[in-house]
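Entry for adenosine monophosphate complex. Fields follow.
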Amino acid sequence: MLAPGATIGILGGGQLGRMLSLAAAQLGYRVLIYSPETPSVAAEVSAGWCNDDWHDMAALTRFGDRCDVVTWEWENVPTAPLTALAPKLAAPVRALEVAQDRLQEKRFVAGLGGTPAPFVPVDTPADLDAALEQLGTPAILKTRRDGYDGKGQWRIGSRAEAAALDLPQVPLICEKQVEFEAEFSVLLVRSRTGDHRFWDSPHNVHRDGMLATSTLPAPACVTAQTGAARALAAQVADALDYVGVLTLEFFATLEGPVFNEMAPRVHNSGHWTIEGAATSQFDAHIRAICGLPAGDTRTVADRIALHNIIGPRLHEAHDWLSQPDTHLHLYGKKDALPGRKMGHVTRLWRGGTGGHRT
Ligand code: AMP
């Protein structure tokens, strides 16, 4: 168990690091952020900051020397240099290696008995044509690495449409477009001794490939599938010897849960847990990596809605504050550019509260 006053290192400087840092501070820890990018919204609320390069092993070693434990908030951290601080990392680097490559990730989960959308690796236009012949259309072409929030994705309606595409010179993966009833995520926390706890699974709605809302309770088509999805998520966490919060995203289909992707970290669809659960995902992650008791993951409201505040919607965000049981989190980012996550709001309904705007 890490004593109060110990130092937690976080790799990555975005809003997830910011919310982890706030949770750590409440538990009496100091946080150091490692992030080459400036400004860092996580560094602004932390005790210290290193803005060296991801590939600077000497800087990573120095950072590790200043920390008692190191975690990450961004899954695309280059993994090779992390050997410099391997003894301090809370979870094995393998979790990042698997999650950084969509092909590896799907093969890994399929190897554990999960069902991903049918997929084919693609490197050339000829591969893409063959993939579409096999999978049919519509399909979705994605970069294997570095994609997020719908970036690095192309929806393909026909083989003719595919032939006209100017393919990027990076490894790709083509997936069958899944017909789903709803999307949901499994949020779990795994302790250093291998115990799992789950939060209720929210129903997630994406717009333009980016999460727009997460709501609870999820519809019956989701709750009927969370048992199987949780079992798979627990297997993934065990196979990776994972410590902390792990998220798996699924499509609820008529044939059962179809795995979409995993995030070896706290997740946007879990932000509602700050007010909507007895222990938030951020608190639970810090507890897990520090060896503290796990905490109670129970939902504490009858109904919950999380809305992301994207781009220029930031300018009307304070309007939410006039609503009852409504909790605003702004991330402190300066440029409210279209498609950028600027904050989120969580609305709770409990014991007959009402009067919220819709
Ligand atoms: P991803 O970055 O892979 O999570 O994709 C972002 C969003 O695009 C998902 O949450 C879905 O709404 C949609 N999407 C991605 N892959 C598929 C698929 N194979 N079938 C249907 N929808 C998909």
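NOTE: Residues 226-239 form the longest helix (14 residues).
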